[in-house]
Amino acid sequence: MQLKHLKTLLIPQDGAAKVTCMAWAPNNGKFAVCTVDRVVLLYDEQGERRDKFSTKPADSKYGKKSYVVKSMAFSPDSTKIAIAQTDNIIYVYKIGEEWGEKKVICNKFVQTSAVTCLLWPAEHAIIFGLAEGKVRLANTKTNKSSTIYGTESYVVSLTSNVSGKGILSGHADGTVVRYFFDDEGSGESQGKLLTHPCPPYALAWSANSIIVAGCDKKIVAYGKEGHVIQTFDYSRDGSEKEFTVAATSPSGQSVVLGSYNRLRVFNWSPRKGLWDEAPSKEIPNLYTITALAWKRDGSRLCAGTLCGGVEQFDCCLRRSIYKNKFEMTYVGLSQVIVKNLSSGTRVVLKSHYGYEIDEVKIMGKDRFLVAHTSSTLLLGDLGSNKLSEVAWQGSGGNEKFFFENETVCMIFNAGELTLVEYGNNEILGSVRTEFMNPHLISVRLNERKQRGVEDNKKLAYLIDIKTIAIVDLAVGCNLGTVSHDSKIDWLELNETGRKLLFRDKKLRLHLFDIGAG
């Protein structure tokens, strides 16, 4: 992962004017910055400032300067922002989908102490930490908040795992606590995970380990159950100061830590099972980095500073141009952004299992994506933005792909036909056949709505040159076979999959009713 400076979004001031927090919207379209003057600035994807709004105190009698905004997060649908304040309150602002829409407070959650950090991992559920040591959940639907767990120590940091189903909280006494809403079958423990030698202000949860750093100038990588895997010690480096903030890339393969005038980058090496330190990004006169935010597609990292500056960096492992029509940006080992150079549309191709993506190909009249990992196959339709990842054992790249059908990809490999529906991560079906011609296969997936039929998925193919088999893919059963007296050279199912039309070598056309046989 290399960081390349792109532009300055907010010009730094002469004195301390700390950027207190920043957040990217999940749909990648908006970026929010909050400075020490308690105003939220909204930027678009290109880094142009488009909007702003002022936050408000919990009680106007204490004045507009009675609080600081400590943290903020966008809702999963990118239309709201939650603001955590030191005057014991969280406000949720509805900012809408378009620029310039009226900002309306739609929820407020009053607390018993200052709100120090905040996440919004799932719909209706805001997770936040308090100065009194509690980690709580605010439900935006019911307007109520409840305690998830309590500790006796100030919450200094809060982060979630890559899927957003688990959280880690760092506390002033060095404790790091883990909690799962759903452990996704990992079987990892909950509760107090580890005690770090200093307050874990920089806390990151990557796909493979937990990285913690703070004022002792050491970066420690802990394993899934809190044992130390690696330590990077900078305490003897006179130019290094304390680590203030950390961010994990959306793929969970890279972590960036901010300190004084410097961003340190660490990349996970799956082959070694360890972290590799990449060249750090040093920027003189940047001062302390106080906030970091990574764009959800992994292509941009923003850093906010003590003097009120916001710098934007481009993040990528490598870039390539494909057929002079597409730009491939590898933003992580398991994540590639494919951009159509003529239309500017983008698709983010990501391995859900964290496998390394080898090479991305674009086939079928420049519409369909194909990429291999060590254990899976990634397929995608650029037109409808539907992506699939299915388990696939490597066959040396001997597969043949057919893209004649818009909803399903046909893959031939060693006498077997496999069907993958775009947008579905399970193989739809596979059958043995020697006939690779798309004219001798017909697939129909929910092409016409029918009363009382939820899932209509049918396949007709040749078992041998004179026998057609018809299969219901939704339930995986055989609907019947049609034996014929001469060679068949073309076949097709109708849209509902109830009738079969086929032609033989004597140029006779036959219509077969599948239900009646």
From TrEMBL:
SUPFAM superfamilies: WD40 repeat-like (SSF50978). It holds the Pfam family WD40. Keywords: Cell projection, Cilium, Developmental protein, Repeat, TPR repeat, WD repeat. The keyword Repeat applies. One of its GO terms (biological process) is intraciliary transport. InterPro entries: WD40/YVTN_repeat-like_dom_sf, WD40_repeat_dom_sf, WD40_rpt. One of its GO terms (cellular component) is ciliary basal body. It is found in: Cell projection, Cilium. Belongs to the IFT172 family. This is Intraflagellar transport protein 172 homolog.
